[in-house]
Amino acid sequence: MDTAIVKKLKERQEYNAKGELVAVTRDLELHNLPGEEFDRVPDRTYGRPTQKIDLDANPLPPVVQIITPLTQMAQQGTRQ
After folding, report:
1. CB atoms within 10 A of CB 63
2. DSSP states of 16-63 as a string?
3. Alpha-carbon distances, residue 8 vs 5, 27, 33 (angstroms)
4. Separation CA 31–CA 9 (nearest Å)
5. Which residues are registered as beta bridge partners of 9?
6. In a domain, 78, yes or no
7. Is the pLDDT score of 3 beyond 60?
8. Residue % of the chain over a pLDDT of 90
9. Contact call for residues 5 and 30 (beta carbons, < 8 A)
10. Residue 29 belongs to a domain
11. Which one of 40, 55, 69, 74 counts the least CB within 10 Å of its CB?
């Protein structure tokens, strides 16, 4: 059995006044080595998480109107 993932194992034994074993408590601590493959599980299960960003920006500048002789003639033609 591969035990490379086990970091620490503690065992405590409790005895009563007569010296009889009453309880055994075991604490098992594992290494935190999930690996790259494990990180892909949440990514593929529910899709990539979204992140909202609030931006405080200046409003867009006013629209710039370019007037050329051709556009000026077109504007005068629509006014008449």
Report:
1. 5
2. -TTS-EEEEEEEEEE----HHHHHHHHHHHS-PPP-------PPPPPP
3. 9, 8, 14
4. 11
5. 28
6. no
7. yes
8. 21
9. yes
10. yes
11. 55
Residue 53 identity: I
> Is residue 73 assigned to a domain?
no
Kindly state the DSSP code that residue 64 receives in the 8-state scheme.
P
Element spanning 7, H or E: strand 6-15
Please give the Cα distance from 49 to 34 (Å, whole number): 20
Q: Model confidence over 30-47: pLDDT tens digits?
A: 877 666 666 666 666 666
- 27: in domain: yes
Task: List the domain range (segments joined by +) for residue 29.
Answer: 1-33
Number of structural domains the chain divides into: 1
